[in-house]
Amino acid sequence: MDAAEFRRRGKEMVDLIADYLENIEQRPVYPDVEPGYLRSLIPEEAPEEPETYEDVVKDIERVIMPGVTHWHSPYFYAYFPTANSFPAMLADMLSGAIGCIGFSWAASPACTELETVMMDWLGKMLKLPEDFIAGTHGQGGGVIQGTASEATLVALLAARSRAVRMILASDPQRPETDITSKLVAYSSDQFCATLGTTPSCAFDHITELGPICNAEKIWMHIDAAYAGSSFICPEFRPLLNGIEFADSFNFNPHKWLLVNFDCSTMWVRKRSDLIGAFKMDPLYLKHDHQESGRYFDITFSCYSQSIRFRSLKMWFVFRMYGLKGLQDYIRKHVELAKEFESLVRADQRFEISADVVLGLVCFRLKGSNEVNETLLKRINNGRKIHLVPCQLSGQFVLRFAVCARTTESRHIREAWRLITQLAEEVMQELPN
Amino acid sequence: MDAAEFRRRGKEMVDLIADYLENIEQRPVYPDVEPGYLRSLIPEEAPEEPETYEDVVKDIERVIMPGVTHWHSPYFYAYFPTANSFPAMLADMLSGAIGCIGFSWAASPACTELETVMMDWLGKMLKLPEDFIAGTHGQGGGVIQGTASEATLVALLAARSRAVRMILASDPQRPETDITSKLVAYSSDQFCATLGTTPSCAFDHITELGPICNAEKIWMHIDAAYAGSSFICPEFRPLLNGIEFADSFNFNPHKWLLVNFDCSTMWVRKRSDLIGAFKMDPLYLKHDHQESGRYFDITFSCYSQSIRFRSLKMWFVFRMYGLKGLQDYIRKHVELAKEFESLVRADQRFEISADVVLGLVCFRLKGSNEVNETLLKRINNGRKIHLVPCQLSGQFVLRFAVCARTTESRHIREAWRLITQLAEEVMQELPN
Hey, which residues does A287 pair with through a beta bridge? Predict the structure, then answer.
């Protein structure tokens, strides 16, 4: 395929994407396939000779779509949202075309620098303490990771490296393996200090944990993977109080801030902690601006070595929505969750299982776990809406997460109508 | 931006991308900016109100392009290639629109299943031992990782987990920390068994290392990040001999197989080794097909938890190029490298510093490191072509890697003309 054909096929693909997203709610949100369905639909080996683009495109509906869980359907209420916006998609197209690998400043200065500046923009939107902002002379700053798990791993390795350096400073002869074998990582059963857990969007008390960590020189990493996006709204920012005690902080704009996956943003109070933990200096990565540009090479310092030009997505989204547009988006999802919560509370057969703080409602039928498990199975087998469960204090609980960008009040009400209709069936069949 | 505007802007972006790639060789391949150049070109904070798309797009040339190292220019000979093809870009657009997160089979069956089948297609192209193919009943199989470093980390953790299980089987009372503190990872100064090192594309003798690893029950991980793509050609497949001793194998189609970043493919002989190392079973990820679908959940088992629909890129590329098209592409790059090698060998002032096996030529002026460092600096300051160095046995060596999809013989000859012209200048100025 040459550039001329790409001009044509690319435009067809743009229409295909717009068609898909405009009509997504007509599709069953959850696929009706059995494991292994796909293998029988395509050949066992790659073709020897090229196929035509038409051949490939018609297989999208035949092979792929029947097996897709449609995360961007307004009837998708499972897990947590994953972001999808048109500005982010446009930026990602450009990122793919530039196709640079930003493992050092010199490997593509724009890639490294835009990332640093976008992390500052976002840090300021969240009103992070000044320590976490790179600016032109700051000691802290942010980098984009692929996932919150990656950010946690990076924080863990940086913490280990800092602890080893601290101990070696007072006891230089001590073998490093002896030090590392004695290090301890403290976590809850959701790991590290979490703002907005996955099961129920619960919040750890970081204003209590923080001072202990600081006094004991424990690296404090805060994970706000889902909830973090909401902190751009002044009314939700208090949830982040205690951030002033943290060494590193992470959340996922690719969840709830309209920046398509992957974009997991991580800030550190001291960039040197990351650089110290991951420094690698092969000759082929050295460049003239190594020293003056050192702080830009923070991206390189983060173990994965190769990174895409991911900050373009942030730049397009932040500019085309503006801070107000992003705040409106967050608030709308929270309002929709509150609307669902009211519907649940108004029905005496149901109960709310955890505080509804943001866009997640944990609820259940009053009664046994069995009846709730059966209800959830019926809901998902209907394929009209999709939810997943969680376990809270031994109870089987249904999670209703407002996810899609296009979810409106009418979808929430339709979902509730379906849930109550199925609940009625289930309660008639089973002893509650 | 709604779907209607996306239809318009998306098509404009397709043209912008085609224009960029068609005219890329007119741009200086290496940017002429100083560290910090970008911060002064854009505001210090995100805008409160939305900006227009026109505002954003015109900043691509004003803000971004001056700081881009153009990896897809036919005059880019630095590092190793990073893939860029039109079919992969089209697939990535679709992947962005579907925007599913494939952390379990149920989270999007098509995503998990296409990945497993594409890994089989590619494994068969490489003629991997049957053990590494999932098929319908195999014990092995492949998963896509983001980078070769991630694959190495995953292999290391799986190896550790297997070693711990082996020792616990014979000594169940032994504390796990006692076992892990005694584990050893063997590596060369390029780490693990490498086929095609980054500095010089050198090959470890895996037919010698392999039997020792097997006899000693050492997990053998083979990293062929760059070279792996060439193994689809029968004439280069012998470089992979010894793979039959490996527990895991990885290479990057996102380097040299026309599948845009990120797509680092990793196979294991026993999927259970990965699943055992990474198993996580929160209730919100359980699904009805958990058991029958277990082997599809191998993707989930790999620590990052969240994955994009990356196999679409492989599917589009393999079908639209066909195996023959991909082989032709590899062979063309190797021929271009051989052509460059001949030009170097025909010039008595230069020497070849390492065997030219694939698309990388390591060469230098006969003489001091200083004269070669000066030559490289002149080359890169010219911004017409871009190379990076490496160090081989204490010598400063220039690396000439054939990288771009559109590189032709005329670009190689033009590059050589420039290099020899600058070499002449340097040799007149400096004692050789």
Answer: none
Going from the C-alpha of B239 to that of each of A101, A419, B207, B335, the distances in angstroms are 27, 59, 10, 17
Sign of the C-alpha dihedral computed for residues B382, B385, B390 and B396 taken in this order = negative
Q: How far is CA A270 from CA A283, A289, A305, B220, B314, in A?
A: 26, 21, 20, 37, 39
Give A12-61 pLDDT, tens digit per residue. 999 999 999 999 999 999 999 999 999 999 999 999 999 999 999 999 99
Taking alpha carbons only, the member of A247, A237, A260 closest to residue A193 is A247
Domain architecture of chain B: domains with CATH: 100-308 (3.40.640.10)
B65 touches chain A (CB under 8 A): yes
- Among A304, A380, A391, most B C-beta atoms within 10 A, so best to mutate, is A304
Residue B341 at interface with chain A, using a CB cutoff of 8 Å: no
β pairing state of A248-251 and A221-223: parallel
Residues ≥6 apart with Cβ < 8 Å to B238: none
pLDDT in tens, A199-241: 999 999 999 999 999 999 999 999 999 999 999 999 999 999 9
How far is the C-alpha of B227 from the C-alpha of B81, rounded, in Å? 11
Asked if B347 and B416 count as a contact pair (C-beta separation under 8 A), the reply is: no
Residue from B225, B425, B420, B408 nearest B332 by CA: B408
CA separation for the pair A314, A369 (Å, rounded) = 42
Tens-digit pLDDT profile for residues B223-266: 999 999 999 999 999 999 999 999 999 999 999 999 999 999 99
Question: Which residues face A360 on adjacent strands?
Answer: A401
User: What pTM value is reported for the model?
Assistant: 0.95
Residue A309, both tokens: 């030009």
Q: What is the number of other CB atoms lying within 10 angstroms of the CB of residue A151?
A: 27
φ, ψ (nearest 5 deg) of residue B401: -105, 125
The kind and range of the H/E element at A230 are none
Contact by Cβ (8 Å): B271, B140: yes
Which backbone phi and psi does A202 adopt, to 5 degrees? -90, 160
| A25 touching chain B per CB within 8 A | no
User: How many Cα atoms are found within 13 Å in the side-chain-facing hemisphere of B83?
Assistant: 29
| Residues of A whose CB is below 8 A from B290 | none
3-class secondary structure, A85 = coil
Band of residue A169 on the pLDDT scale cut at 50, 70, 90 = very high
Question: Rounded distance, CA A81 to CA A226, Å?
Answer: 8
Q: If you measure CA to CA, which chain A residue comes closest to B255? A: A101
DSSP string, B173-184: TS-HHHHHTT--
How far CA B288 is from CA of A38, B285, B304, B355, in Å, comes to: 18, 10, 23, 54
Cβ-proximal residues to A292 (8 Å cutoff; 6+ apart), any chain: B34, B35
Smallest Cβ–Cβ distance between A9 and the set B35, B90, B177 belongs to B90
Q: Closest CB to A110: pick one of B68, B284, B325.
A: B68
Residue A3 contacts B, CB cutoff 8 Å:
yes
Q: What is the 3-state secondary structure (H, E, C) of A312-336?
A: HHHHHHHHHHHHHHHHHHHHHHHHH
Report the distance separating Cα A284 and Cα B24, nearest Å.
24
The mean pLDDT value of chain B amounts to 92
CA distances from A263 to A92, A146, A213, A315, B337 (A): 11, 6, 28, 12, 37
Residues of B in contact with A104 (CB under 8 A): none
**B319 with A55: Cβ contact below 8 A:** yes
Residues 212-271 of chain A whose Cβ lies under 8 A from any Cβ of chain B: 260-262
B185 touches chain A (CB under 8 A): no
Q: B107 and A18 in contact by Cβ < 8 A?
A: no
Q: Give strand ranges (E) for A125-240.
A: 141-145, 193-194, 221-223
